[in-house]
């Protein structure tokens, strides 16, 4: 009888994983480290044993209930939910119809963004549709691979290749990247997650890069390829630069309009976070384009990016890392701002 009980206990235990779940909206204190059921594998999916998890702004936006959005846009969440999108790990199960990947493959992904639900990244296991996954770059570890997907895909889809047809509801026109070769590109928030990748992509494509960040970021950003650097704590970029071809404002928001005056006629401003932008009329008068898109999961693009990461063309910078159980501390670190690169959670 005791042996039978042990078998049952072990079987039940095998269906449970550790995760970070939340049962209500709020600050970091709502993130609870607890058991959750291992998600059942659906057709077209693989299950990944997670080794590391990238932390991104949508994580704390959703944790807080997307309070910055109009009420009609705020998500109706089926609690409890698991946050997160970016993972790196090893496949431990594949659906019967999956031929592209095998058990034991090391992979990375941005999972199901912009949706959310019970099978997301802040957990020991996550199911991933095969269309959203790619083999992990061989020359970087899981920590750095997990830090890449959302931020690097964002920079890529804004600057190089959109890769989807989902319309940004805040603008009437489809987002179109612009040619970068021989252009002058200013990148605001250049030391952050999206920003440090944008610097490298612009440089790779042959642009002259002006990086805007705090003074402590200068050495790193020049190493990543910035030709010029502006310390925003001492100077306002819009007061000292002009005739720019493209501004990538990785901070975005209501203040993005201040960069319009830096652009030459025919130039473009891409605010990564376009909510609150109110300079459309001024942009039209100046003859410049303002455009944004929303990043979407894309395994094909991650495969391309893995090659750039493997070759060292793109480097991933880690700000800090925390065990999964301490996800609250990671969110508290994010709230302090001035992040250099990415914050990552580790799974033992």
From TrEMBL:
Q: Name one GO molecular function term.
A: oxidoreductase activity
* Domain Enoyl reductase (ER) positions: 26-345
Coiled-coil regions listed in the entry: none
- What is this protein called in UniProt? Alcohol dehydrogenase zinc-binding domain protein
InterPro entries (alphabetical): ADH-like_N, ER, GroES-like_sf, Lipid_raft_assoc_Zn_ADH, NAD(P)-bd_dom_sf, Quin_OxRdtase/zeta-crystal_CS
Entries under Pfam families matching the protein: ADH_N (PF08240), ADH_zinc_N_2 (PF13602)
């Amino acid at each position: 009888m005791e042996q039978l009980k042990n078998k049952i206990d072990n079987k039940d235990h095998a269906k449970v994983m550790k995760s970070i779940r939340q049962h209500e909206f709020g600050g970091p204190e709502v993130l609870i480290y607890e058991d959750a059921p291992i998600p059942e594998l659906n057709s077209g999916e693989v299950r990944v044993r997670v080794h590391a998890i990238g932390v991104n702004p949508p994580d704390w936006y959703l944790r807080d209930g997307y309070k910055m959005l109009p009420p009609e846009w705020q998500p109706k969440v089926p609690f409890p939910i698991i946050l997160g999108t970016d993972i790196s790990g090893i496949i431990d199960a594949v659906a019967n119809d999956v031929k592209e990947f095998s058990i034991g493959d090391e992979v990375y992904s941005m999972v199901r963004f912009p949706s959310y639900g019970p099978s997301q990244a802040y957990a020991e296991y996550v199911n991933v549709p095969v269309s959203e996954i790619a083999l992990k770059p061989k020359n970087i570890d899981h920590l750095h691979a997990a830090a890449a997907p959302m931020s690097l895909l964002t920079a890529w889809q804004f600057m190089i290749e959109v890769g989807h047809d989902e319309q940004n509801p805040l603008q009437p026109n489809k987002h179109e990247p612009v040619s970068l070769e021989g252009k002058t590109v200013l990148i605001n928030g250049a030391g952050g997650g999206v920003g440090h990748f944008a610097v490298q992509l612009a440089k790779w494509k042959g642009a002259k890069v002006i990086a805007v960040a705090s003074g402590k970021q200068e050495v790193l950003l020049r190493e990543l390829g910035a030709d010029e650097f502006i310390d925003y704590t001492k100077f306002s970029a819009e007061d000292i630069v002009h005739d720019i071809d493209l501004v990538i404002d990785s901070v975005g928001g209501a203040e993005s309009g201040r960069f319009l005056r830096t652009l030459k006629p025919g130039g473009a401003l891409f605010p990564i976070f376009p909510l609150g932008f109110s300079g459309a009329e001024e942009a039209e008068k100046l003859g410049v384009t303002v455009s944004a898109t929303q990043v979407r999961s894309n395994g094909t693009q991650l495969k391309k990016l893995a090659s750039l990461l493997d070759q060292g063309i793109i480097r991933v910078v880690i700000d800090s890392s925390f065990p999964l159980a301490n996800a609250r501390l990671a969110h508290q670190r994010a709230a302090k701002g001035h992040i250099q690169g990415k914050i990552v959670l580790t799974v033992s």
